[in-house]
Design goal:
264 residues, alpha+beta, Fructose-1,6-Bisphosphatase, Chain A, domain 1, D-Maltodextrin-Binding Protein, domain 2, 15 strands, globular, EC 3.1.3.25, Inositol_monophosphatase-like, hydrolase
């Protein structure tokens, strides 16, 4: 099996597991932050994905949300979020997904995001375009922020440091047509890629949140940078993603919040 096929099969099997266990969570643990949750379902999904990938590519490295990084010796690294949208999942709120990416020599070359609730499979391979259930997708053509629907998320430390994200939210609220908060960064990113959303920003994300979405957006013709407009790395905390046409307008709004926080 090729890399993309493995990622797709792993994501679909994990998604099936998530859907089958929706509403059956028995144990909810809290990580460092009180509102950062992990369940036995996250761990079970991750175990399934890793076992499948390792059965095909035993020497590849793995970076997964719950178990961390294993072996740094391979040039290939699989980056896995077994359940993006855990808080939604614990409330049986059907907005969550599986996100799997493959990095080669520090560059993401494959991304897969699977939503088992809608049976929507988003995927991309470097240089080959982005797809949803086999059909090619592309970003929207909206060119003005006031006509744009955006999405964002709030970091787990929002209660301790609200200025870090609330400032941006208020600024965008005044300039955009609408803002949505889905609770799954991976879905936010692929929704930008297929044109359902025009842009997305968030202040504090991890590699497994954004790795798959990054390449899917890029292959769909979109743009993704850090808060300063620099080339985006999945190891960067802040992300701005868009159809490209409203990107500079989004960066200007972000800049307002950054400047205000720096003056405090």
């Amino acid at each position: 099996m090729d890399y993309l096929s493995v990622a797709i099969e792993a994501a679909k099997e994990a998604g099936k597991f998530l859907k089958m266990n929706l509403g059956k969570v028995k144990n909810i643990e809290r990580k460092r932050e009180e509102i950062n949750l992990v369940t036995e379902i996250d761990k079970g999904s991750e175990k399934k994905i890793i076992e499948f990938i390792k059965s095909k590519f035993p020497n590849h490295s793995i970076l997964a949300e719950e178990s961390g990084e294993t072996s740094k010796t391979s040039e290939y690294k699989w980056i896995i979020d077994p359940l993006d949208g855990t808080t939604n999942y614990t409330h049986s709120f059907p907005v969550f997904c599986v996100s799997i990416a493959l990095e080669y020599k520090g560059e993401v070359i494959i991304g897969v995001v699977y939503d088992p609730n809608l049976d929507e499979l988003f995927y991309a391979e470097k240089g080959k375009g982005a797809f949803l259930n086999g059909k090619k997708i592309s970003v929207s053509k909206t060119d003005k922020l006031i006509k744009s629907m955006l999405a964002t998320g709030f970091p787990y430390n929002v209660k301790e440091n609200p200025d870090n994200c609330v400032e941006h939210f208020v600024n965008f609220l005044m300039e955009a047509q609408a803002i949505r908060r889905l609770g799954s960064a991976a879905l936010d990113l692929v929704y930008v890629a297929c044109g359902r959303l025009d842009g997305f920003w968030e202040v504090d994300l991890n590699p497994w949140d954004v790795a798959a979405g990054k390449i899917i957006i890029e292959e769909a013709g979109g743009m993704i940078t850090d808060f300063y407009g620099n080339k985006f790395s999945i190891y960067t905390k802040g992300v701005v993603a868009s159809n490209g046409l409203i990107h500079q307008q989004m960066l200007e709004i972000i800049k307002k919040g950054l400047n205000k926080n720096e003056r405090r």
